[in-house]
Amino acid sequence: MATRTTAGRVTRQAPKHWRAHVVLLAGVVVMIYPLVWLVGASFKPENQIFSTLDPVPWHFTLDNYLSGWTATGTSFTVYLANSAVVALCVVVGNIVSCSLAAYAFARLDFAFRKLWFGLMLGTLMLPFQATMIPQYTIFFKLNWVNTFLPLVVPQFLAFDSFFIFLLVQFIRGIPRQLDEAAAIDGAGHARVFFSVILPLLRPALITTAVLTFIWTFNDFLRQLVYLSDKTRYTVPLGLNSFIDRASGSSYGGMLAMSVVTLVPTVVVFLVSQKRLVDGVANTGIKG
């Protein structure tokens, strides 16, 4: 009787699982189709890109990549190199400054710590547009406009509150007994941070590095505000100038360079996917 009941339950639940899988599969197709179409269209001849919704390039060609690489008058290699330099510098700045600031908020006792932490979290609600003009004025007076300095230097000053909060939550999950044991052995705050906290902070630091790289590599508005020389353009600005130069007519090269732009971020995400998920999960549990 029990066996039949169990079998009956399985029989009744099977159609539900089947329907759920169909719905999920349909959602995957809807979300991934634009990307598949983009890649396929980049290998199509110019006159066949919009002739059909079929993403398969039946007349395969590399002309879009060959012509698009220099279509803006500047090699796309320059844009990729600039984006790589900015993104890597920002990653280093965020890891160093945000981890130090997070350790201070999570472990040190200083006056008005909760107030400063609350003010820091309050900056998360400020959009970049609200502080864009004051920041631009400061960097203009420092003669930093049209350089990478406005994009990089603030990150070495614990500029990104989101990552400070993420690291604080992770550090709070680390037992204080480890700090106390190190202190008994004569370790100061610097030794505790570098020898005890930092090694255990690795999952959260990987999460910070990956998200920082992806967001910085794809950032457009901040780079548009501060960079005006084409030799300093990053990938998003390079694509924008490509559209201006093409005047909305040469879509083949634009789509091809869009595919090239996706490669670095996709590779970084795929390589660090497991560690990224672990870092986010552990941070959420320990917060």
Describe, in plain words, how this protein is organized in 3D.
The structure is a single chain. The chain has helices at residues 2-42, 63-68, 76-107, 113-122, 128-141, 149-152, 161-172, 176-184, 189-200, 202-218, 221-226, 235-246, 251-271, 273-286. The chain is globular. It has two domains: 2-47 and 55-61, no CATH class; 68-286, MetI-like (MetI-like fold, Orthogonal Bundle). The mean pLDDT is 85. The two termini are 47 Å apart. It contains 14 helices and no strands. With 287 residues, it is an all-alpha fold.
What's the helix and strand layout?
Layout: H1 2-42, H2 63-68, H3 76-107, H4 113-122, H5 128-141, H6 149-152, H7 161-172, H8 176-184, H9 189-200, H10 202-218, H11 221-226, H12 235-246, H13 251-271, H14 273-286
Helix pairs in contact: 1-13, 3-7, 3-10, 3-12, 7-14, 8-9, 10-14, 12-13
Put the structure in a nutshell.
The chain is mainly alpha-helical and 287 residues long. 73% of the residues lie in helices and 0% in strands.
